[in-house]
Fold each of these.
Amino acid sequence: MLQPTGAFKVRGAFNRMLSLTKDQRRRGVVAVSGGNHAQAVAYAARGLGARSLMLMPEFTPVNYLEATRSYGAEVVLTQSLAEAFHCVAKYEAMGWEYIHPFDDPLVIAGQGTIGLEIYDDLPEVTDVVLSIGGGGLAGGVATYLKSLNPGIHIWGTETAGADSMSQALAAGEIVQLSPVTSVARTLGAPAVTDTTLALAQRYLEEVIVVTDEEAIDSLFILLNDCKILTEPAASCTLAALDKLQLNFSRDSHVVLVLCGGNVAVEDLCQWRSDLPHTTVKLQPCLAN
């Protein structure tokens, strides 16, 4: 969340776009996003001298739209995220290079550099808890860490209403969400893919689904106790600890990946008004 653009997505965007030729960059890149991936691709495109066009749903918060445009991208609004994905083929036919938010090996590898940094800083890590939208972050981090130490436990987290991976794992196949209802909009992939589902099936211990209320409670705990402002899509990892504590011991070294901090002040005030008192009892976890 402390990366440029306020989320981890710049890692995958740069890794994918550095593979493009000068001619491909000149023709431009197109991406689909609820916010963070759009900013990352726009930021990387500006740095690499590429044109960029973002397909974003019309309910995208204004702060995401303004930030994306500030990096020089053209923004086209669609009625839904699913429609945005459907429109990609039209731009590809016009010569634009598609940068998928999670179903791309170079994007997944770029996100996996978080796992590299975790292991460098804490080689004794036993457990990693991270968010799942489309599954690229989880797949990349898990692949790297498991290659170094197969005993590390990787736990995924989603919010109810944006739980495409949890539903896919339960069904054993891709499940299409319609609609995505969670306030954690950046977790709102309408479906995972064969690639990310396979990585989750291979590497994840479990995917914990928390409520929007639990994610927002945890957001305010992080803000009040740690002075860190996250998105619900990141604070949901802290909420997941309430359901995972029996899996940890005094010898555990648990890492929470706080993957994004792009929150609109208007949303923050509304959530505080709707939920005046926190209910998730996680302060002892932070203190210890």
Amino acid sequence: MQAMDGVLVINKPPDVTSHDVVAEVRRILRVRRIGHTGTLDPFATGVLVLLIGRATRLAQFLSGVEKEYEAVIRLGYSTDTGDFTGQRLAGGPSSSGPWSAEQIEAALAQLRGDIEQVPPMYSAKKQGGRKLYELARAGEEVERQPVPVCIYKFEAIKPTGELLKDNLDGTYDFEVRVECSSGTYVRTLAEDFGKQLQVGAHLAELRRTRVGDLRVDHAQTLDQVKVSFAEESLGTVLHKPDEVLARLPAIDLSDEDLRKAEHGMDLRIDEAKWTDGERVRMRDAAGNLIAVATFNAAERSLHPAVVLAAEHS
């Protein structure tokens, strides 16, 4: 069977883990080397980026890109997990809404730009060698240090024309679009938004619509992957490694330089147009990604940091 190397964008369904999706795609494609660039919570849906074959070597270049989400924030009470799967917490702020458009915009504005977030206890972040959610399930709560994140966009979505949907049970649903740096917890953003309005809040729905340049429009369901594999048309939905790193500058190699790059040898560059430490795609004559290099300004050279070319026998 011909080796498969590329990036597959999955539209993750609800109520399955990201690990389950990876296992299912591994079973469908009958390949062992599959990785991902960042998990989604089981209840969340949308873009899950899977790296197939030698493309698994590109994880470091795709894990830190910005993300985009569409979410429903439920205003009225908080939960112990920050989302609807958790237990409702008693007490908390007494504001009951509804809130004016001006109040909502002021709350959104406070959470845009560079902010700090305290990682939720129900997260996979490790502390003291243990994942926080493992401690939380054991009834433990530990102090967490805030981490810097950037919220590029935090705005209301009004699909029905309403700013707030009254659920007639003392809660209101508020739909938002979020564009943020990698490492942002949208659950924490929802809770912090509620605090700005002096009301308990949690995440009722979450859908990831973009990871870097890979959008949910590019995504395949698991059933579609099965069909594509059965019809031997997987190449039509498998993104080439060079395509998904299109943000990086590129250099097309001569045959001689190609052989050097495939063996991880540095290339001397006479007329460089990159900054020191910048990542550069190295491609063959057909436009296939051979390696991702790091530019050394002092030595005016490119060092192939990650080589994708097939292993030589």
